[in-house]
Each structure stands twice: as structure tokens, then as C-alpha cells.
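User: I'm putting together notes for a lab meeting next week and I want to include a structural view of one of the chains we've been expressing. I don't have a solved structure, so I'd like a prediction I can at least talk through. The sequence is below, exactly as it appears in our construct file.
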Amino acid sequence: MILVTGATGFLGNHVARALRARGEPVRVLVRASSPRDLLADMDGIEPVVGDLCDRASLEKAVSGCEQVYHVAADYRFDVPDPEAMYRANVQGTRDLLEAAGAVGAKRIVYTSTVGCIGLPDDGTPGTETTPVSLEKMIGTYKRTKFQAELAVLELAKQGLPVVVVNPTAPIGERDLKPTPTGATILRFLQRKMPAYVDTGLNLIDARDCAEGHLLAAERGKPGERYILGCRNMTLREICEALAKITGLPAPKIQLPYFVAYLACWFDTKISGLRGRTPEMSLEGIRMAKKKMFVDAAKAVKELGLKQTPPEEPLARAVDWFREKKYV
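Assistant: Thanks for the context. Below is the predicted structure for the 327-residue chain, given as C-alpha cells.
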């Protein structure tokens, strides 16, 4: 049996589907309150109710599992409750992996984030060995993921058979929530992007990213980190690619960073007073000040990570959002 956490979400669902495509028996950890829309058309999965903040439920979930893919995380920006995010992302990760080790799991894959990868000051792409520290992490989400990754690597030193993967920005179908990258695609489709900022990120097909998790379990070295990414693209290049796919015009105006920052600051403050999630995240714009360009050569060479051109999953994302009436 293989346990997958986060299968009700975008990337975790793709991981669960990749495993089922191989005929593997899959158990998925789901919170009682989690929507199960993405699981509705999946056969051969065993849902088990649990929570990263409930160690007893995690011990039950890993029982009899030879492999564990820990994809779930509390993924929010501008959170008013950092302690709750720490409890899920850091302590919950430690609890789950310790439980998996206690039942003798033979391989564990922990899903970190590209946000934990260091970025050189000269603008060259970051790699798994680029120096980085907690002080470089912007916002609660990145800080908790960085702390979780440190805890995972320490468990690996103690003999736990765990491999760390650092996905960049997965794109494709079934981005239900959507993710911040999916939200950018959606805003483009809804004609809510009159301008863009000078930022960039690395895109990867969600299917390739999911397959990268399986490859990490098969070929990855315990205690090692692998960036799961494909192509570095500026936001302008992403918009131009979407324009070719959809026929919609790409924004022509580059917004100065300080103007975008003020807009996000205002929206975040007003949203906090109204008790809603900001559309323009202050934490997100602070991250956007530096291009998140990285090099996935290690995963390509050692794992055999596939490199599907981002235009393909961008087109699938567009079709899915339209099919599901997001637009």
C-alpha cells in the first residue's frame, strides 16, 4: 500500500493518479472538511480521514504502507495565524515521517518547494546546492516549509529513507483551488491582467512533476534534494504564451514594482479587515521582486525527469478552466 497526502489538491492528485496509472494500490489522507471533487472519478483508492495536526490519525494512515508521498501542506499567503501553519507544515511533517519510519516504510518522498532553493545574487539560476538560510525566506509559508525541509533532512541523517523534491510551479488541468500560478492563468483568461510586473518563475507540467515524485522514489538518493522544474519564464513570456493559446491580447504595460507593492499592500489590508483572502497578496508581491529561476539539471540527469514544453500544460489548464466554468 502507498500513502499519498494532499490528493484532494492539485499536485497531490496528479501524484495519486500517476501511481494508479501504474496499478499501485493507493491510500489517500483526507481531512473531514476537504472537498473530494478531484477524487470522484478515481478508482482503486482508499480514503482515510486524518489531519496533519493529529498524530494518531497519521499513525493510522501509514499503517501497512511501504511507500509514503507527503505532498500536503498548509499553502496560504498573508496568514493571520502563523502558529497553525507551523503546526501543520513543520510538526505535522515530522509526525508523519516518524510514523512512517516506525512502520518500516521503505521509501518516503517529501514535497518541499522551490521557495526553499537559494537564488544567487547575480541572477543566475539556483540549484540544490546554492546557499540559503531561514532569514532569506519571505513569509510564513516559505519559512515553515524551510523549517520542515530541515527537519526532514535531519531525519534522513538518522537513517530514514526519505528523498526531498522541490517542485517549481506545476501547471495543467485539475487546479481546483487554484494555486497562485493557476490563479495567474485564470486572471489572464478573465481579462484581469491589464499590466504585468518584471518577475519570473520556472514552470513544469504537473504530470511531469507528479512522475518526478515517482522517479524520486525509484532513483533518488535518501537525504538528497531534487528540483522538479522545466523552463524559466518571465511573467511577460507566460502572458505571451497564453495569448498565442487563447487569442486574447497579452498585457503591454509593465507596472513599476513599487506601484504593484502599494496595490497589494492596500488590498491585503482591506481584505484582512473584511475577513477575506486578498486577490493581490502582499507576501506574493514581495516574493515576485526576485525572479525564481532555477536549474533542474540534477533531476533530469539523475531521475530522468521529463521536460514537456510549458505551452502544452498551459493549454490544458486553459481548457480545464473553461470546461469547469471558471471563466
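A couple of points you could mention at the meeting. The chain is about 45% helix and 15% strand. The first helix runs from residue 10 to 21.

User: Perfect, that's what I needed.
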